[in-house]
Amino acid sequence: MGLGYRRATLDDLPALTDVMTTAFIADPAWGPYSFPDDARREQQSSAFWEQGLRAALRFPWTLVTPGCEAAAVWIPPGEPEMTPGQEREMEALTERMLGAEQTAVVMDIFTRLEAVHPHDPPHFYLSLLGTHRDHRGAGIGMALLADTLALIDAESMPTYLESTNPANDARYMRHGYRPVEQVTLANGHRITTMWRDVPT
């Protein structure tokens, strides 16, 4: 497809937040399971994603289509997704919005995913890939993934991701990913972790 991409900056944060809010609003892990209040889900999700995206933008590896229709948020090798301070801020924000009991549900997702996240060999981590709902269904997200994987392949680095929606597993596999294991959430939903070696 080849829409091209550019590196996002803090000026893109509002558009990036809209992309992830609309992309994950119905996600099995990050949708109603995390934000069960139908009336406030979009507002709460938006605040949650803005905080996480702001943290990721400390690296130059959030890549977007030219008009920010889709975004791929990569965390470079050896780096945490958030600093300890940013993690505390995220948890505090979530508790203000959701209360302690529901915050425990959200934090449990992070805990379970972190427990299986590999640290060796060094790799790029695809934290988020999303397409704004106004542009869904045109293949933009997967085209962006292909373009950004080519950039990472030039670095000769493998990549890792967590597929929270089973509908996306086959799409990732077409781009060279293989399933590694499944992480089962407290409600029984399974997240598939996936690994992609450096192409030879």
Structure description:
This protein has a single domain (6-196), classed as 3-Layer(aba) Sandwich (Aminopeptidase), CATH 3.40.630. Helix content is 40%, strand content 19%. The model has no long low-confidence stretch (mean pLDDT 96). The longest helix has 17 residues, at 100-116. The protein contains 6 helices and 7 strands, in the order βααββααβαβαββ. With 200 residues, the protein is α+β, with helices and mostly antiparallel strands.
Order of helices and strands: EHHEEHHEHEHEE
CATH topology name, in short, is Aminopeptidase
* Major sheet size, sense and barrel closure: 7 strands, mixed
First-last Cα distance: 23 Å
CATH architecture: 3-Layer(aba) Sandwich
Counting helices, strands and paired strands, the structural category is alpha+beta
The top level CATH class name: Alpha Beta
Mean pLDDT across the residues is 96
CATH superfamily: Gcn5-related N-acetyltransferase (GNAT)
- DSSP summary, beta strand count: 7
Across the major sheet, the strand order is 1-2-3-4-5-7-6
Our estimate of the beta-strand percent is: 15-25%
Number of helical regions: 6
Give the CA-based shape.
globular
Number of domains: 1
The helicity comes to 25-40%
Short characterization:
This protein has 200 residues and is of the alpha+beta class. The protein is built from six helices and seven strands; from the N terminus they run βααββααβαβαββ.
